[in-house]
Amino acid sequence: QVQLVESGGGLVQAGGSLRLSCVVSGRTIRRDTMGWFRQAPGKEREFVASIAWNGGTVYADSVKGRFTISRANADNTAYLQMNSLKPEDTAVYLCAADPFSDATWNYWGQGTQVTVSS
Fold this sequence. Notes:
- The protein is an all-beta fold.
- The strands form two sheets. Strands 2, 4, 5, 6, 9, 10 and 11 form a seven-stranded mixed beta sheet that branches.
- It contains no helices and eleven strands.
- Strand 4 and strand 5 (46-51) form a beta hairpin.
């Protein structure tokens, strides 16, 4: 059974930083594209960032220059470093794995809450 478990969320003041982790079990992520999404109350889930198996990254315009996605295949883990956080970054952040790198996002975690106070 494949499981994705996020951690690292919390409450932070605007301008602060958090580092989210996503540990995957039940499969190796070595060839997967890994992604982070977020969903705020009353809003649609939105793409935040992704990292392909070869290290190529894509970011939403709203987080470019502030967030950095990375991966450690040996640890089957993906990360999201979030700097210069803003209140509008408040959301549940979810990790996802895309084994075929075709944006089907077959596997999802349960999410971790990030709250940014002004």
